[in-house]
Please model this.
Amino acid sequence: MDAHQYKFTYTIHKDKRMLAPADQSLINEAVMASQRAYAPYSNFKVGVAIRTSDAHVITGANQENGAFPIGQCAERVALYAMIHSAGRVPVDTVAIVVDNKNQKTPASPCGACRQMLNEYRSHQQTPMRLLLTLATGGQVIEINDISDLLPLAFDGSFLGQ
Model:
């Protein structure tokens, strides 16, 4: 039996003022996007801002539905909007902001969103940074690459692609 261990490193910044101005702006865009979330059932509003390698910013917010399985997470809304409006351009950074009074720490993407973002990242073959924070401010968790959150990810290679 071979035992393997997986570790990754991430950075916690005290607040967004510790980041470069472009990253601060991206977080601000995600905060504004969270205000357009439709979350009447959970009140867990999420806003996302994606910055592409050519500096375009595309946003999205979660959209709930009374039949929960058909709602959409903010990460996927933003990714689909980006692909539709800008094409399949490389993603540099994704800011994910949670706007919920009960949430005390930043939240990372759900499993489905990790899969979607990681799949897109595998095609661009360059790192996709994540910035996770709250709409009310506070700490920012910086993850250097989405692939760090999904080790041993399922991808097209399993399908003979």
Observations:
- The chain has three helices and six strands.
- The CA atoms of residues 47 and 66 lie 20 Å apart.
- The domain at 10-150 is CATH 3.40.140.10 (Cytidine Deaminase; domain 2).
